[in-house]
Write a structure and sequence with these properties.
Structural class: alpha+beta
Largest sheet: 6 strands, antiparallel, barrel
Number of domains: 3
Shape: rod-shaped
Strand order of the largest sheet: 1-10-13-12-11-14
């Protein structure tokens, strides 16, 4: 009884293995199409398109100007920012200088007057000291002369301090504050110049112009593509491989691309999807597994004659 049961189980297992060992029909080529990775050039801000320098089909070099947006407001902002920097620099330079020469000359003239007044009061004071000592004048008169002498001498000391202070520049904290203002305004100029530069759109690499979205005079919205470029080497082929043949495809594997009226082109696989494009509700039966299809991408070694949207067939070498 046990031997019969074991024989039945072995027969059933062998039947299952034979079912899964049967080979599905193989495809000689896989259907696909050509696709491109475009570079879309847009401006970060809105504005009127002042000039469009390229047309469809043109070949452009890296750095070549593609389009120019109206930059009247940005140019005025740069001019204003530069003028503010010049003003702040002038104020900083002024802090490093003393007062103007005419002001210092006026203080020197006042000191000359004070010296003359002091000379007079000094002479008067000395004369009265002699007269009081001789008994000719009273001590009270000497007190008034002494007060005038001290006043005129103090005036000279005051003017000397004023002249010295007038020849000095601004205080250290004032100079540091003025320098910080100059640095901040220079950063404002850099920002304004950066925004001005963004009004001119240039090609980031050599490429072919595929499309232009706007015409001169039209208003361009923020981040709206103006020029579409196709750089070299950015053409790829997308094709679908049935589940039964997916194991024969590897990243980096060589494939052959063919199309109507074109010479076959060699390519290599760069991407294999992790999920099937078409997944049936039940995947446990052999019939449903045969319907699974996985997206694969390959980059041709030469893209001559392979235009985006062109139907192709991909075969394994």
């Amino acid at each position: 009884m046990i031997e019969q049961s074991l024989g039945w189980i072995s027969a059933a297992f062998a039947a299952v293995l034979s079912l899964f060992a049967a080979e599905p029909p193989q495809h000689s080529a896989f259907a696909g199409y050509v696709e491109a990775e475009y570079t879309r050039i847009s401006a970060p801000g809105p504005g009127t398109l002042a000039a469009l320098a390229v047309s469809r089909g043109d070949m452009v070099k890296a750095g070549q100007i593609l389009a120019q947006l109206d930059a009247t407001a940005e140019l005025a902002t740069v001019t204003e920012a530069r003028a503010r920097v010049a003003q702040a620099q002038a104020q900083l330079a002024d802090l490093g200088k003393g007062r103007r020469t005419p002001e210092i000359d006026a203080l020197n003239a006042q000191r000359t007057q004070a010296l003359a007044a002091f000379a007079l009061s000094d002479t008067e004071y000395r004369r009265l000291v002699q007269l009081v000592a001789e008994g000719i004048q009273t001590p009270r008169s000497l007190d008034a002369a002494k007060a005038a002498y001290d006043r005129d001498r103090a005036r000279i000391t005051e003017l000397d301090a004023m002249i010295e202070n007038a020849q000095l520049g601004g205080r250290d904290d004032q100079v540091r504050a003025a320098q910080a203002l100059v640095n901040a305004l220079r950063a404002t100029v850099e920002q304004a110049e950066f925004r001005l530069g963004q009004r001119t759109l240039s090609a980031p690499m050599a490429a072919r112009v595929i499309d232009t979205t706007y015409a001169t005079g039209e208003f361009v919205q923020t981040a709206a593509p103006i020029v579409t470029l196709l750089p070299p080497g950015k053409v790829k082929v997308r094709f679908y491989v049935p589940e039964a043949q997916l194991s024969s495809i590897r990243l980096g594997a060589a494939v052959i691309i063919g199309c109507d009226g074109c010479t076959p082109v060699a390519a290599h696989v760069t991407f294999i999807a992790n999920q099937a494009e078409f997944t049936p509700p039940v995947i446990f039966s052999r019939e449903n597994r045969a319907k699974l299809s996985f997206l694969v991408e390959a980059v041709p070694d030469k893209a001559d004659g392979l235009h985006p949207g062109l139907p192709v067939e991909v075969a394994l070498p």
